Amino acid sequence: MILQSETPLPDTLANLLGLGGFGVAGEFVASFIAAFIVGNVMLAMTGVAGPWAKRKITAKFTDRIAANRIGPAGIGTIPADAVRLLAKELIVPEGADRPAWDIAPLIVAGSAMLGFAVIPMGSGIQVADPEVGLAYVFAVASIASLGMVMAGYASNNKYSMLGALRAVAQNLAYEIPLVITGVSVVLFTGSLRMSEIVAAQQETLISLGGVAIPSWFVFVNPFAFVLFLAANIAEVGRNPFDIPEAPTEIVAGFQTEYSSVYFVLLYLGEFLHIFLGGAITAVLFLGGAAGPGPESIGFLWFVVKIWAFFLFTQWLRSAAPRLRIDQLIEVGWKGMLELSFLNLVLTALIVGVVV
Amino acid sequence: MSSERELFRTDDTQVQTETRDARMTGQGDRFNSKLREVFGSSPFILTKFDKFMNWVRGSSMFMLQFGIACCSIEMMHTYAVKHDLDRFHAGVPRASPRQADVMIVPGTIVSKFAPRMKRVYDQMPEPKFVVGMGSCTISGGPFQEGYNVVKGAEEVIPVDIHVPGCPPRPEALVYGVAKLQERIANGEASPVTVKPYELEQFGDLEQDEIVDELASEIDEEDLVMRYNWADSP
Amino acid sequence: MSSLQEGEETPEIESGETELEALLDDLIVDRDDHENAPAFVIRPDTVQETLGRLKEEAGYDHLSLVTAEEYPDRYESIYHLKKFDDPTDEVSIVVPTDAENPVSESAEPVFRTADWHEREAYDLVGIDYDDHPDLRRILLPETWQGHPMGRDYDQNRPQMVPLREHANPLEDDHRSESDSDTMFVNIGPHHPATHGVLHLETTLDGEQVVDVEPDIGYLHRNEEQMAQQSTYRYQIMPYPDRWDYISAGLLNEWAYARAAEDLADIEVPEYAQIIRTMGAELCRIAAHMLAVGTFALDIYGDFTAIFMYAIRDREKAQNILEDLTGQRLMFNYFRLGGVVWDLPEPREEFFEKVRSFTEELPELLEEYHDLITGNEILQMRTVGTGVLPEEVAKNYGATGPVARGSGIDYDIRRDDPYGYYDELDWEVPVEDGCDNFSRLLVRMREVEESAKIIEQCVDLLEDWPEEERNIQANVPRTLRPDDDTEIYRTVEGAKGELGVYIRADGTEKPARFKIRSPCFSNLQTLPEMSNGEYIPDMIAALGSLDIVLGEVDR
Fold first, then answer.
1. DSSP state, C402?
2. C159 vs B222: CB contact, 8 Å cut-off?
3. Where is this protein chiefly located (chain C) (predicted)?
4. pLDDT tens for each residue of A98-140
5. Cα(A174)–Cα(C9) distance, integer angstroms
6. Fold of domain C223-553
């Protein structure tokens, strides 16, 4: 049973539009269209999540109603918020380090977008499927730290500076456990290719009373899943690890000085990173786009899974206290790192002996 | 003491009317429509566009997370469970002024704080709006006669909506915000004018007794706010 | 210097007085007794010796307040001393200084808390303190001209306030002498964690706080001047509501009412006392709810569930208070000699409402304990951080939940009873962890105790015979306390010992009205708690102090 389409989206499009005959140019156009589609789908989702879903979810956790005046359940706030924020005055603080200050938001948002290129989203939506897919996605996702440092450093603001330094320290501490835990999954699949990781999770693990439980790695290795989830939340900087922003301590961290379009980019970038984190979790542990029903609705299952991750981050935001920076680093280096290596070694032993 | 008083105008009829004049004159285009500058007049498409932009700005706003005094307690209640200002698409508090549209001034402004508030207001990007909450932001309220109290937020920054009360109930603040949204949607906003208490460079001030006294303490480049208490309305 | 007022002093205290006189024999110049305590006049250069003796040998370890005032012929600093073990055992030290050259010795080496109190006296009245470590203006901007609580201050004089830019973050900063790798950060006056308009001048070494210095005065709105311009009978009462504005209105009003009633010998009817007690404890619940909510806000970092739930439960208390007083926040409900009106009709409905609130309170608190104190991350963050040892707390004159979180068993309601508290059955919660967590626990346990008090009050009020419901004593329309009588009285406010000093001059307005703000003293302990800790711990410590800038700055 192979749910995942083996052909990446650009090839499908090239065939569909008859671009195959144009050689490299045709491939280029097809890739461009594919990237455009995927990019817009993800942007649309963050557009829903940022100004609206986040508020509604938080409101539900805190016994409130939140936006409900424009459109059903206040959904009309999305275009209003977007246009308003984009139309605001862009203030460049005095003493800002100009090119770096302008590029930083692009990097933060762009790095997440790049990550989506290799995610198999089901229903044949995958822009590229390189052999080193997993390594690639971790690599581009962590470029965001660079953007945060640039933003913080270039803003000429002490709070931004502190936020940037915190972001680096945090990402350094959690990147390694994250990748190591990801590698424990690769031990099972024997491949870094995203589609193969998904494909490896399609077999039935165990049948309980007629219900087939697939061999998603969350069921195969729940310990790794928990580790990965924690590291992932730290990686995307959500509560209880939202230390780079920490509104009550350092105002808004690295994004303190940004307004208007750049703020939108940073804000979008954050949500894109949450969704990317969700997407990686889904691919590695939750069977990618797999779910009941025909293969063609795989994308819906994928969306459900990444939204579930988003919901989880918002739940934590409402309920979990923030760690202190030194405690966070301690948990990262002294706890998560050891546990992730332990997990790796154990997995290697099990895979070597059992499989 | 009477001889000293001559130095400063304390008689109401002699008081400079800069405050009032400043409010009457001076128009700033709060909405910064660059297109309009280019076209000069207002063609149909631009009026429709403006209307849309006004609707957008009136429909959704981020608030500055800003507390001063008693009113900020009622402001918290307005944001929170029972009154839930976010129902009006106006309940996202942002800690950084760069990302806020509306500043609710919740309390008494005193001499030491006014320059800071002015600075925070300046840090907000246009178009920005101010809701003055409570009597203190109208006139100084119960503390009007104090030696240290600025007689209303209008002395320092332009205010779009005044919500009276000491403190106003959360319902009143909700009403004030709703009214502000209505005004913005209709394209009305208080013009940005020169306020009587501005931040100026110390070196630019006219020489008088107090400037001389402080010359040793304040650098020429330092920004200062000068309070002419006798001039306050 | 003043007419000796023969009060209701018990012989026991009088014998204490003779001992004190013996102890300070060579230092005392004169007597100038106050309504509440014996007062000894000393020379301005013997302040440290006098206070030192009183602290070390007579056990007066609590410098409650320093009052400064200007007379036509002299300046006067009054040190109001108490004992943490027994706050009814008071003594005042009066230090007159020369009108031309007002220099007095600082009490700072004896009591740390005198630091800020004397700075305030210098700022507002203009007395110079010799040997003071850092005599600068505290409430007014540093460039202010004149001393506004002095006698011939011209309020119409123009003033100038500078706004100084701070240095580039990437430049070297050499504020700390030992280490050049420090960074100076201004936290506030507009900052999400400062609970209003507080400015913390913070020197950081990386993420660690090397030194923090609170800069206050951003909400100094002349409460004392306002009271001095108002009449005792009606005009002063609305102002106390605005000192500690976090719904602690009735507690503050009681501070003024207690001082003024004792000054004018007004006996408050028992029935009114019970209503006062009930209202005050409702205020305490509302105030502590917000303290817990904002503390959670500081730790959690966003407007999270706990903050919202705290506000939700505050709403309930506020609704009851609104039924009782007609206002949500600024109650103006007390009158000298009683309260303004009786309980709202129908009484049964009101009692029902109060009861249902107090009955569901334990359940609500259980929810808070699940969410806050039972949370392991929160414990990681708060246990053992922001430590304020007992001796340090005493030295700084910390009171209220801050003192009780440091193991100081001190509560004016029990130790110097007023109202109906001594007739009721309740406890003073004390925790000896001295850290942020203990202060949080104390507040949450105090809410429970307040609920107990309210329940007992409701029972009493319900059974009170209809014909004896006297809410107001006979008080003359215009109140003119005797000339040159002085009184200092404290009550237990939401944040600690809230006191009022009044000097009457025979007119219908006080000649000097001084407020002892618990937050003012408590906030002074912040550097002790946070130097050497991380920024988030400093923020948490500040949250656990639960300051209200309206009361700090007055």
1. H
2. no
3. membrane
4. 888 888 888 888 888 888 888 888 777 777 788 888 888 888 8
5. 69
6. Cytochrome-c3 Hydrogenase; chain B (1.10.645)
Across the interface, of B59, B87, B94, the residue whose CB is closest to A80 is B59
Q: Which chains touch A (3 or more CB pairs under 8 A)?
A: B, C
Question: Are the beta carbons of C305 and A249 separated by less than 8 Å?
Answer: no
What subunits make at least 3 CB pairs under 8 angstroms with B?
A, C
Q: Are the CB atoms for C254 and C338 separated by under 8 Å?
A: no
HEC string of A170-187 equals HHHHHHHHHHHHHHHHHH
Print the domain residue range for B104. Answer: 20-197
C549: its two tokens: 């800038």
Which parts of chain B sit beneath pLDDT 50? 1-28
Phi, psi (5° rounding) for residue C551? Answer: -90, -35
Contact C536 A156 (CB under 8 A): no
What are the chain B neighbours of A64 within 8 Å (beta carbons)? 80-81, 84, 86
What number of other Cβ atoms are within 10 A of residue B52's Cβ? Answer: 13
The CATH H-level superfamily of C11-130 is NADH:ubiquinone oxidoreductase Nqo5 subunit (3.30.460.80)
d(CA C455, CA C285): 13
Rounded to a whole number of angstroms, the distance from the CA of A331 to the nearest CA of chain C is 12
- ipTM of the prediction: 0.85
Mutate to test the interface with A, among C166, C311, C377, C530 (most CBs of A within 10 A): C377
- Whether B219 maps to a domain, the answer reads yes
Decide: helix, strand or coil at residue C153. Answer: coil
Residue C453's pLDDT is what?
Answer: 92
Locate B200 and state its tokens: 């100026």
- Domain borders along chain C are 11-130, 223-553
Measured between alpha carbons, how far is C117 from C126 in angstroms, rounded to an integer? Answer: 12
Does the pTM surpass 0.90? The reply is: no
Task: Give the pair of three-digit tokens for residue B110.
Answer: 């005193």
Report CA-CA distances (Å) from C444 to C369, C372, C388, C416, C543: 9, 11, 19, 23, 14
Contacting A residues, span 202-221, partner chain B, CB-CB under 8 Å: none
For residues B184 and B231, membership in a common domain is answered with: no
Which residues contact residue A221 at a Cβ distance below 8 angstroms, ignoring those fewer than 6 apart? A184, A185, A188, A343, A347
**Three-class DSSP category at B192:** coil
Residues of chain B contacting A83 with CB distance shorter than 8 Å:
52-53, 56
Between CA B168 and CA C523 the distance in angstroms is 29
Give CA–CA dist C198/C180, Å, rounded: 27
Does the distance separating the beta carbons of A66 and B98 come in below 8 Å?
no
pLDDT tens per residue, range B108-130: 999 888 888 888 888 888 788 89
- Residues in chain B whose Cβ is within 8 Å of chain A: 32, 52-53, 55-57, 59-61, 65, 80-81, 84, 86-89, 91-92, 94-96, 98-99, 101, 123, 125-127
Whichever domain contains B140, its CATH number is 3.40.50.12280
* Rg of chain C taking only CA atoms, in angstroms: 23
Alpha-carbon separation of residue C176 from B182, C182, C328 (angstroms): 52, 7, 47
Residue A204 has phi, psi (to 5 degrees) of -80, 130
**What is d(CA C2, CA A67) in angstroms, rounded to the nearest whole number?**
65
- Which residues, at least 6 apart from C4, have a Cβ–Cβ distance to it below 8 Å? C31, C33
Say how far apart CA A278 and CA C451 lie, in whole Å: 46
Whether C238 contacts C330, CB under 8 Å: yes
Measure the CA–CA gap between C484 and C198, rounded to whole angstroms. Answer: 37
C58 pLDDT exceeds 90? no
